[in-house]
Design a protein that fits this description.
heterodimer; A: about 160 residues; alpha+beta; 5 helices; 5 strands; B: about 800 residues; seven-stranded mixed β-sheet; six-stranded mixed β-sheet; 31 strands
Chain lengths: ~160, ~800
């Protein structure tokens, strides 16, 4: 940052907690989460909005945190992978299903997939296979060939229903 | 009771931290670290005329700017030649920062250290490097012509020329009833892990300890390189591969310039320093692979039996050749695959170009060799009007022909001898799985709908588990926790899980009590690395041997305590007991206490090992001769040679009659990696490998233009498949245990990718009716081939009827 760069003190609401941070306008949301708040579960895979590793939800919708300035989400509810599990640490159904179905290998893309999947299932707990493919079509994985990721999201839907019943 | 863990689809213990976002990748470290960024060459080939940093000096947060002339003597030398070879007569490796010339687009010229990455990149943007641009050398044609030479001190672009031969291929080809000659080509691709390269270093002045975290496939080798180049004792350098976000080969390359420069900067400044590449510089400056052009000359009989095969190929290793000749040697020696080739000659040249350096990418030279062998068989079948599977069957090595000596020298410098396998069974089951014999019915039904489909297949043999060795350490703590360490690192293969499965069985302890650490020199100092589908074979067996040593020791100590014969004891669920008399037992926790005679107790349980408690003979030392304190074992596994896995793939593809879009409808995999440790993890490896193979066959390439500019250095332009492009493979296994290692296992990590380009090409050729001799293939290329073959105007009334 340069000496003349204007700093902005903003409030970020992340996983239900308020954080006051002072950042330049160009600070990416991904960098603010990772560096300023220490929430390193959100990963940066390409910094040009294609790989989806950095996906978080803002007001419930999945977005690329590497293409979003931190100052732009002031006042919004940001949710990251660290906020998926329950307050007692109980895994979210998508987390449970990803492990059960071996839907991750190196784990680097996983937080992005989990956030995309959680957003999908929050909106529609019983998605069709085409819905799942569509919802995952913005996230790259180099390890799994996606087979078990699709399975895991179907399984997460089942788990969510079991939890809800 | 203890359930056998080996062979079970045990859930991965890595997952817990990774699904919570609590993994630790390099970039998750060092929020306080100085950041490094590089000025990289925008030219493929140029002389550096001047570096002007004036404008960057005012950037707030700037710490330092380095060019080659600022580097101390040892760091200023070219980086190591990792694998020398007598045939590699002109090796050139890069400087950590370019000295006088750059030889590829993206080569590092200036290093900037700043308070954070934003500041570092601000400074990078203000540094002006002047170049005298030189002509680029792109592609094997230009490299072979040699009218432009990549390295100033060479007269051509040939780094190496090598020949291997068994029998007398030329004479057999000349005498054969039938003969074919043709050219084949495979283009470059790249590993593209979602996490790129990264290195973080801290220097502790008080302890005089350099701690380096690197996203590497070989932390022990990185450690030796850093210590050597920085002129430090090995023991002052620790290298840890934390969670690594995928490797696929690219991270076996080491030391990267950054793996030397970042630790050096950390020691120089006494502060943590970090470099993490961005995606563009990963495309430009992390290694590629695959580019080869093959010429094939084959003689065969009327039944399709190959009588002699001669392959001559050029290998594009890019700007430098740090990894030696491993890739073309693997291509040369894995090309024969499952087929009997008593008369085979292979000759290659390894050529410099002004493009990124090539080192192994999952498959590592095998996809090219398999492409050539499988295309050759398909061409023989076409020439003779025979079924492609039948021609394969007639050439297969039979199950009673093992061990089968190829008569060639493999990548480990040892003879390539297949240890076990059943290739006819692979082919038979593949035909069933894909529906080979009924395909004409399927084709006719598709044609009736105006759809064009084709079927193809490909077989391969993969040398896995190359030496020289790996080691493992198993330690039973007095709490009952079992601590396991091995030196090689993990990039998502589930090593923590499968190694714990092995130890649970070998030692007789619950799986949940076993903790595994990989890739940390603080825990295990001697290792080679994770590559060549070797981790399960090498570290798996080493850890098994270590566990057996710990078990034998436990039985000796327990036998003493129980006044029994060690041979009469068994360990189940962490309790040693006399077989048939379970009441005569002692828990391993207590055995661990007794294994370490104490003067000073540290707990109630440990009092049993103190000098007035322990019942030993007064004539023997407390630690018996030949024993050491502690319930632990160390094992090293060093195989005499590689073990060979094998497999067969088949695909059904559909090609759009109008747009030439290529779609994989079905994909079948038959796989043999010997005994399976964890079928869930194995299938995951195959899924990922097949996806990467399909990516390489249909979507991905490194699009260098004639000036050596990489024009697709982003995920917008390099078409890594999403979920929308990858089919679910149908998978079946056979198990022919390896006789070479104690666990009978063979490697599996690369298998999925190896025959995919060959298989897809075979299927497209079947759909289209003309040869597919170059991969990858895009719709526009297929469309151009149709035009060249005159099939683009095929009467389409029938084909379009269903649209």
């Amino acid at each position: 940052m340069s000496d003349t760069e204007t700093l902005h003190t903003i409030t970020l609401v992340v996983n239900g907690a308020e954080h006051r941070v002072t950042v330049p306008a160009r600070r990416l949301l991904s960098d603010a989460l990772r560096h300023d708040l220490g929430l390193t579960g959100t990963h940066v895979g390409c910094e040009h909005g294609v790989c989806g590793c950095c996906t978080v939800t803002v007001d419930g919708l999945p977005i690329r945190s590497c293409l979003t300035f931190a100052v732009a989400v002031e006042g919004s509810e940001v949710r990251t992978v660290e906020g998926l599990a329950g307050p007692d640490g109980e895994l979210h159904p998508v987390q449970e299903a990803f492990s059960e179905c071996h839907a991750l290998q190196c784990g680097f893309c996983t937080p992005g997939f989990l956030m995309s999947a959680a957003a999908l299932l929050d909106g529609d707990p019983d998605p069709s296979d085409d819905d799942i493919t569509e919802a995952m079509a913005g996230n790259l994985c180099r390890c799994t060939g996606y087979v078990n990721i699709s399975k895991a999201i179907r399984r997460a839907g089942e788990l969510a229903k079991e939890d809800g019943s | 009771m203890t359930t056998a863990m080996f062979g079970e689809p045990v859930r991965r213990r890595e997952d817990e931290r990774l699904i919570r976002g609590a993994g630790t990748y390099v970039d998750d470290l060092g929020s306080d670290a100085l950041a490094v960024a590089f000025v990289r060459s925008p030219h493929a080939h140029a002389r550096i005329v001047d570096v002007d940093v004036t404008d960057a000096l005012d950037v707030p947060g700037l710490v330092a700017i380095y060019t080659h002339e600022d580097l101390p003597e040892r760091i200023a030398e070219p980086l190591p030649l990792l694998i020398p070879h007598p045939d590699l007569t002109e090796p050139r490796t890069q400087y950590a920062l370019a000295r006088t010339h750059v030889h590829h687009d993206g080569e590092a010229v200036v290093m900037v250290v700043a308070e954070d990455r934003y500041a570092a990149e601000d400074a990078v943007g203000r540094i002006v490097v002047s170049y005298e641009v030189l002509p680029a050398v792109v592609g094997l044609g230009a490299a072979a012509r040699g009218d432009v030479v990549v390295h100033e001190d060479m007269s051509d672009n040939v780094a190496a020329h090598a020949v291997q031969s068994v029998g007398d291929a030329r004479a057999r080809i000349a005498a054969a009833p039938r003969r074919l000659e043709f050219d084949l080509e495979m283009e470059r691709s790249t590993s593209s892990p979602l996490e790129g390269r990264g290195v973080h270093a801290t220097w502790d002045e008080r302890d005089r300890l350099l701690t380096v975290h690197s996203s590497t496939q070989s932390p022990t080798s990185v450690r030796f390189a850093i210590a050597n180049i920085l002129g430090m004792p090995d023991q002052q350098v620790e290298v840890i591969a934390p969670d690594v976000g995928g490797g696929f080969g690219v991270k076996i390359m080491h030391p990267w310039p950054e793996e030397i420069l970042v630790p050096w900067a950390a020691r120089t400044w006494g502060r943590p320093v970090k470099f993490v590449d961005d995606r563009r510089e990963h495309f430009l400056a992390a290694n590629h692979e695959r580019g080869q052009v093959h010429h094939v000359d084959v003689g065969f009989d009327e039944q399709g039996r190959i009588l002699g095969l001669e392959v001559t190929f050029d290998h594009d290793h890019g700007a430098y050749i740090p990894y030696g000749l491993i890739l073309p040697i693997i291509t040369s020696t894995q090309l024969p695959g499952p087929y009997r080739l008593p008369d085979y000659r292979v000759e290659f040249r390894s050529l410099y170009t002004t493009t990124m350096t090539c080192t192994p990418y999952r498959g590592a030279g095998r996809p090219q060799g398999v492409f050539t062998m499988e295309r050759t068989i398909d061409k023989i079948a076409a020439e003779l009007g025979l079924d492609r599977a039948t021609v394969r069957e007639r050439n297969l090595i039979r199950p009673d022909e093992f061990p089968h000596d190829l008569g060639l020298t493999f990548q480990d410098g040892r003879p390539a001898i297949y240890d076990s396998g059943d290739f006819p069974e692979l082919l038979r089951r593949l035909r069933d799985l894909i529906g080979w014999d009924d395909f004409e019915t399927e084709r006719a039904a598709a044609e009736a709908e105006g759809r064009r489909i084709g079927i193809g297949l490909g077989m391969y043999v993969e040398g896995t588990g190359v030496g020289p060795y790996e080691g493992g350490h198993v330690r039973v703590e007095t709490t009952g926790r079992v601590q396991v360490a091995t030196g090689l690192s993990s990039q998502g293969q589930g090593h923590e899980t499968v190694f714990a499965q092995i130890v649970a069985d070998e030692l007789g302890v619950p799986f949940d009590t076993v903790d595994v650490v990989t890739g940390d020199t603080r825990r295990f100092q001697y290792a080679v690395g994770t590559f060549a589908s070797r981790a399960a074979v090498m570290s798996g067996n080493a850890i098994a041997l270590a566990a057996r040593e710990a078990r034998a020791k436990a039985l000796r100590i327990a036998a003493e305590a129980l006044e029994a014969n060690p041979d009469d004891l068994d360990i189940v669920d962490g309790v040693v007991s006399v077989k048939g008399t379970p009441t005569r037992s002692i828990p391993l926790t207590q055995v661990a206490v007794l294994s370490n005679p104490l003067r000073y107790s540290f707990s109630k349980e440990a009092q049993a090992a103190t000098q007035f408690s322990i019942p030993t003979s007064q004539d023997e030392p407390p630690v018996p001769s030949g024993e050491e304190p502690g319930l632990e074992g160390t094992g090293f596994y060093s195989p005499v040679r590689s073990t060979f896995a094998s497999g067969a793939h088949a695909a059904v593809v559909e090609t759009d009659p109008e747009t030439a879009e290529i779609k994989v409808l079905r994909y079948a995999v038959l796989h043999d990696c010997g005994r399976i440790i964890n079928p869930m993890i194995l299938e995951g490896q195959i899924h990922g490998g097949v996806a990467q193979g399909i990516a390489g066959a249909l979507y991905e390439r490194m699009a260098y233009d004639e000036h050596g500019q990489l024009t697709n250095a982003s995920f917008m332009d390099f078409l890594m498949p999403y979920v929308t492009e990858v089919p679910e493979p149908e998978i079946d296994h056979i198990e022919t245990p390896s006789p070479l290692n104690p666990l009978g296992i063979k490697g599996a990590g690369e298998a999925g990718v190896i025959p995919v380009s060959a298989t897809i090409a075979s299927a497209i050729e079947d759909a289209e009716g003309f040869p597919i001799d170059r991969m990858p293939i895009s719709p526009d290329e297929l469309w151009a081939l149709r035009r060249a073959a005159g099939t683009d105007r095929r009467p389409s009334g029938k084909l379009l009827a269903g649209r």
